């Protein structure tokens, strides 16, 4: 694959610069979204978000949790994905997909269940967003977002988006990236 070095670089950047996010094995690459009729390829990234339990987050509706996760992570990951000129400029890439998994907090705790959102965004919208021509709210409005509660499909979700700089400002106490790694 001509893009293997670029994808390894993206994976390493996320690993070192967002250590609370885990890229699933074999979950970064070029995939055809199942909901599309054409053979359009999206650059896709699937991650697991490790987060501390939060009673306030657990009380939110599924749509509100999806909106919060969209706002916190999708924009930050899209910026990292599109920082590679070869990827954003490739005419064979029709869009971008970010799939987020996180542990669902339940009260009382039952068997472990992940919540998931799969976000699909056409390339012109992503270009408008990373180019500063639209904000997170418009990005969310143009995105197709599908949700799951464990293995139960929730279908299409309407999410709200807002500017959230968590991924740029959050630091794990005492964590230092490897020498030579620069995080943007």
How do you describe this structure in short?
34% of the residues lie in helices and 28% in strands.
- The proportion of residues in beta strands is 25-35%
Order of helices and strands: HEEHHHEEHHEEH
Major sheet attributes: 6 strands, mixed
Helix content: 25-40%
Number of helices: 7
Record the strand order, biggest sheet.
1-2-3-4-5-6
| Rg of Cα set | 16 Å
Low-confidence stretches: none
Average pLDDT over all residues: 88
The total of beta strands comes to 6
Distance between the ends = 26 Å
Task: Decide which structural class fits the backbone.
Answer: alpha+beta
| Overall form | globular
Q: Can you describe what's shown?
A:
By secondary structure, the chain is an alpha+beta fold. The protein is 34% helix and 28% strand. Strands 1-2-3-4-5-6 form a six-stranded mixed sheet.
């Amino acid at each position: 694959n001509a893009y293997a070095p670029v994808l390894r670089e993206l994976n390493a950047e996320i690993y070192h610069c967002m250590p609370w996010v885990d890229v699933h094995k074999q979950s970064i690459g070029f995939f055809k979204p199942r909901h599309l009729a054409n053979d359009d390829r999206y650059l896709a990234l699937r991650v697991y978000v490790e987060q501390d339990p939060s009673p306030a987050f657990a009380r939110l509706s599924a749509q509100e949790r999806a909106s919060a996760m969209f706002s916190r992570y999708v924009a930050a990951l899209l910026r990292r994905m599109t920082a590679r000129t070869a990827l954003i400029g490739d005419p064979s890439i029709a869009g971008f997909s970010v799939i987020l998994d996180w542990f669902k907090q339940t009260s009382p705790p039952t068997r472990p269940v992940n919540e998931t959102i799969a976000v699909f965004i056409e390339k012109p919208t992503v270009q408008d967003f990373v180019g500063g021509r639209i904000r997170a709210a418009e990005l969310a409005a143009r995105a197709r977002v599908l949700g799951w509660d464990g293995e139960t499909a929730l279908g299409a979700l309407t999410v709200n988006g807002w500017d959230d700089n968590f991924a740029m400002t959050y630091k794990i106490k005492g964590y230092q990236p490897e020498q030579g790694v620069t995080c943007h």
